[in-house]
Amino acid sequence: MDMDIFHRKVEKGVSLVDFSALWCAPCKAQKPIIDGLIKKFKGNTSIIEMDIDKNRELAEKYMIQSIPTLILFKNGREIKRFVGIQTEATLSNSLNQAIESLDDISCEH
């Protein structure tokens, strides 16, 4: 994915980026959870699966040292980072908190 396209995808709202690789066993274990989150949060957030082998520049920019690494963005800024396999509950809670904080900000205007 081109760097400009990536930044457009994460610049507004809440986004979760899953940095992983096809050959990574823990990433394969995480995949069903990510797929479930994509369905659960459809329309509320952007969930992007990022293959580090095809997107080395982005992996380097975000200093991905091990995979899976998931980065939660709010309005283009990294707000949370998860390294290793995460539960659905952990990721859902973090996504919900980020979405709620967006709603709080928009209500103030």
Automatic annotation (TrEMBL):
Site (Contributes to redox potential value): 25-26
UniProt keyword annotations, A-Z: Disulfide bond, Electron transport, Redox-active center, Transport
Listed GO CC annotations: cytoplasm
Keyword Electron transport: yes
Matching Gene3D superfamilies: Glutaredoxin
Pfam families listed in its UniProt record: Thioredoxin (PF00085)
Domain Thioredoxin residue range list: 1-100
CDD domains found in the cross-reference section: TRX_family
Site for Deprotonates C-terminal active site Cys, residues: 18
Active-site residues, record numbering mapped to chain: 24 (nucleophile), 27 (nucleophile)
InterPro entries linked to this entry: Thioredoxin, Thioredoxin-like_sf, Thioredoxin_CS, Thioredoxin_domain
Stated family: Belongs to the thioredoxin family.
Stated name of the protein: Thioredoxin
Annotated organism of origin: Desulfamplus magnetovallimortis
Gene (name only): trxA
